[in-house]
Amino acid sequence: MAPMTLDHWLAAGANELADLARLADGTDVALDELLLRGLEWLGRLAPYDLAVVFELEDGELRARAASGPLSRPEVREHRIRLDDFPSIRLAIEERRSHVFTEDDHAFGDGDPFDGVMDFPHGHACMVVPLVTGTDVFGVMSLDRTQCVSYPRAVVDLAEVFGKLLALSVHCVRQGQQLARMNLAREERIAALDRHLETITGEAGVLGESNNPRVRELARQALLVAGTSSTVLLIGETGTGKERIARFIHEKSQRRHRPFIPVNCAALPAGTLESELFGHERGAFTGALRSRPGLFRAADGGTLFLDEIGELPLDVQSKLLRALQEGEIQPVGAEHRLKVNVRVVAATHVDLERAVAEQRFREDLYYRLSVFPLRLVPLRERLEDLPQLCRTLLRELAPRVCRSELALSESALEALRGLDYPGNIRELSNLLERGAIRATSSLIDRVDLGLANQTRRKRGGPGRPTEDEPLVSLAENERRHIERVLRATSGRIYGEGGAAMVLGLPPTTLQSRMKRLGIQRPAGGA
Fold first, then answer.
1. 202-278+292-374: what CATH class?
2. pLDDT digits (tens, 9 = 90+) for 233-289
3. What is the architecture of the domain spanning 380-516?
4. What is the mean pLDDT of residues 150-177?
5. Do 220 and 372 meet the contact criterion of CB atoms below 8 Å apart?
6. pLDDT, tens digit, 9 for 90 and up, residues 472-483
7. 128-153 b/e with 16+ CB inside 10 Å = b?
8. ∠ Cα 36 39 43 (to 5°)
9. Which single residue of 33, 166, 249, 286 could bond 130 by disulfide (Cβ 3.0 to 4.6 Å)?
10. Which pLDDT belongs to residue 273?
11. Where residue 395 falls among pLDDT bands split at 50, 70, 90?
12. Between 470 and 50, the higher pLDDT residue
């Protein structure tokens, strides 16, 4: 058969590559069909009696596909060690096709099909590497029973085809990897969905509350969930802002896409921009690889930005662009990227005051507060305490290796007598501590560490009298922290320390004390 001209080769090869690419749907069946189609098409250029694609795995070449009159089941199960065939190794290393005959094995490594196939003495064979970039899939071997060598022109064209086929194989492998990643992601989302059904279905924060303000909050949250509007959650620390954000996400059309929670106060200031918007490789010292960032991770879903008031001003401007234009620019990137992300922000500080003090951008504040929701502190919805405790105990039970947990009447009465500066988070911590200490599934007052707790006075902190002036959230926070510090004798760390009572990491508490100008009482640790 006369070799095809280069023009014919390029035209036919381009058409065949398009056909092969359409098979790359990320399955093993598609990969096997791709290899067989490749061998069949190569036979039009370089006739063979047996053609085999070998896949390289851990130094061993394993037959993956075979074609031709001499193709047999034993051929498809054939394996050879690469170290035993220096000629094939050389073809891979040089990325060049090699032609061999029985009289022309320069390395004396024999025939790869010895013991499997009886080829006549002097038959011709060709080895074509399947390599693209640094990705080595393996080799193709073509054998003829005739004692006629493949012409150099055919060998060169087969080498080009091998590169095209290797590229197609690389695409299929990437499709397989993406399919596995998508499956894992879908499994994680399904698991999260089941968890969310427990949390929101049982109404850990909203629910069938007896408090009219909480019922209105639930109605407003459900109302805005059906839109793509930005939501600003305002409330004291520990009131369950992340739970409300999850509730909004779960009730939205984005519920099958990611929900990504981010605590802005917990991210290091130096890497905050990179964490949110991503970076390119080499954008800064230590950027050894590109990173997509949290906005791209939440693409199509919801990004929950807790402690939004802690963002530096330079990052605030980039966040404003992302909200207004739906575009982000990774650190070190020359071009902006489109993203489709719904932002739910949360804060416990007075953002209006922060704007007046030029610590927060006014335009960003108005962009975030399209639909503000103010959460109700626990001390103002104590009628919901029994239901909240049941939900929290149901969540706690697996963590403390109990099938179920319940509260005694005396324990519930003791809990009703607290002010809850740490709100639901403080209640959750108390219940978990009690569950650990309890000797049975029933948690008693003494297990909560409230055996000597006296009921608070109606006019005490957290229950302002008619004569008490209304104060800002920041001032209210400052007073709560000072009160807890006095109650713990200034101790921040450890069991019973102010950080544990408030449900905050000690470093976060110290940061807020510094920002609010709070001095720790003497004698604390």
1. alpha beta
2. 999 888 889 989 999 999 999 998 999 998 888 877 777 888 888 888 777 777 777
3. Orthogonal Bundle (1.10)
4. 82
5. no
6. 777 788 888 888
7. bbbbbeeebbbbbbbbbbeeebbeee
8. 140
9. 166
10. 85
11. confident
12. 50
Query: CATH class for domain 6-176?
Result: alpha beta
Residue 154 to residue 225: CA distance in whole angstroms: 64
The pLDDT value recorded for residue 435 is 92
CA distance 341 to 304: 10
Amino acid identity for residue 185 in this structure = R
* Ranges in the chain annotated CATH 1.10.8.60: 380-516
In the 8-state DSSP scheme, what is residue 266? Answer: G
E-strand stretches of 371-447: 371-374, 406-407, 442-443
Tally DSSP H helices, then E strands, for the chain.
18, 15
pLDDT for the residue numbered 87:
84
- CATH 3.30.450.40 positions along the chain are 6-176
Return left, alpha or beta for 63; rule: phi > 0 is left, psi -120 to 50 is alpha, else beta: beta
CA distances from 34 to 24, 170, 331, 374 (A): 8, 11, 39, 58
Q: Is this prediction's pTM over 0.70?
A: no
Residues of the chain with CATH 3.40.50.300: 202-278+292-374
Q: Does residue 362 have a pLDDT over 90? A: yes
Q: Is the dihedral of CA 291, 295, 300, 301 positive or negative?
A: positive
Enter the tokens of residue 330. Answer: 């990774």
Q: Residue 120 has what DSSP assignment?
A: P
Q: What is the 3 state secondary structure string of 127-190?
A: EEEEEECCEEEEEEEEEECCCCCCCHHHHHHHHHHHHHHHHHHHHHHHHHHHHHHHHHHHHHHH
